Amino acid sequence: MKKKKLPKTVHFQITSKCNNNCKHCFGPNKNNPDMKLSAIGKMIRIITDGGAENIHLTGGEPTLRKDFGPILSKFKNAGLGIFMDTNCDHFFENEKVISQNVQVIGLPIDFSNKSWRNEMNLKNVLKVLNFYKSKKFKPKIRVLSTVTKENIDDIVNIGELLKKYQFDVWRIFQFLPLKNSNAEKNRQELKISRRDFLLMKDKITKDFSALFNINFVPIGYRNKAYFIISSHGKVMIPTENGKCENKIVGDISDVDIVEKWSIFGSEKNFNNSTQEIFDLIK
Ligand code: SF4
């Protein structure tokens, strides 16, 4: 029987650490340990042998790793395409290594005039957008917005703000109260219904779809889709129907990790959820 292959893109929480502590965050527990550089080297061999072609870095905040540059070089030398989400707070300390290695960068805008992250964050994000405005060669840019009860009336103003910038896609997520995250703790304050998300979607589509490429992600869209490697090597899959959690299915070093992932994973959902990035880089 033909051995199953890894998904084309694996998501990697390169660190669990972050300089912020956002109330809507569904990132990992900050106490999770991070893999050492040597363990990441082994992980790269496993995923490339398994057929992965790209790595999508999330966190925590990827640029907080002191060995961020050497890690990116390892991914690049292994022939992996690199996608990365960053809060932009430490972008300019890492600009060269990002611009030279990352194909697709995701940056957050959740309000038109402030940020959940810290007082400087929105300025930092806009500075990155301004910086790339004048660059001929730059990563593809995804602007990421998470919609909650607190900012749902401001999404249209974010659209107005974005008219001043150049980017490739605006990806708008429904607030996700993932188990054991800040988002779960603050779910009563922030959660919105699917109906409200879809009403917002209609309004934003009407107002901005002629101007930008917009991509909406309601709860359930990522269900059984991603192959996520935690900062300490656990392989997780999002389950968003009923319980909202990242279910651990095994460890990246397990010889049968793809089979374990496949029990819960859906290749079709995976392809749907990741297609927008491939549309950007094709
Ligand atoms: S949402 Fe992003 S910036 Fe905020 S705590 Fe989570 S990982 Fe950090």
Ordered list of secondary-structure elements with their pairings:
Elements: E1 9-13, H1 37-49, E2 54-58, H2 68-77, E3 81-85, H3 95-101, E4 104-108, H4 121-133, E5 140-147, H5 155-162, E6 169-174, H6 182-185, H7 187-190, H8 194-208, E7 214-217, E8 228-229, E9 234-239, E10 245-251, H9 257-264, H10 267-281
Parallel strand pairs: 1-2, 1-8, 2-3, 3-4, 4-5, 5-6, 6-7
Antiparallel strand pairs: 8-9, 9-10
Bound molecules: iron/sulfur cluster.
Iron/sulfur cluster is lined by residues 18, 20-22, 25, 27, 59-61, 87, 117.
Tally of strands: 10
Number of domains: 1
Portion of residues in beta strands equals 15-25%
Radius of gyration: 18 Å
The gross shape turns out to be globular
Helix tally equals 10
Write the element-wise H/E pattern from the N-terminal end onward: EHEHEHEHEHEHHHEEEEHH
Assign the CATH class: Alpha Beta
Structural class: alpha/beta
Low-pLDDT ranges: none
Bound molecules: iron/sulfur cluster
Task: Give a written overview of the molecule.
A ten-stranded mixed beta sheet has the order 7-6-5-4-3-2-1-8-9-10, sandwiched between helices. The radius of gyration is 18 Å and the shape is globular. The protein is of the alpha/beta class and 282 residues long. The longest helix is centred in the last third of the chain and has 15 residues, at 194-208. The chain has ten helices and ten strands. It has one domain: TIM Barrel (Alpha-Beta Barrel), CATH 3.20.20.70. It has helices at residues 37-49, 68-77, 95-101, 121-133, 155-162, 182-185, 187-190, 194-208, 257-264, 267-281, and strands spanning 9-13, 54-58, 81-85, 104-108, 140-147, 169-174, 214-217, 228-229, 234-239, 245-251. Strand 3 (81-85), helix 3 and strand 4 (104-108) form a beta-alpha-beta unit. It starts with 8 loop residues before the first strand and ends with a helix. Bound molecules: iron/sulfur cluster. Iron/sulfur cluster (SF4) is lined by residues 18, 20-22, 25, 27, 59-61, 87, 117.
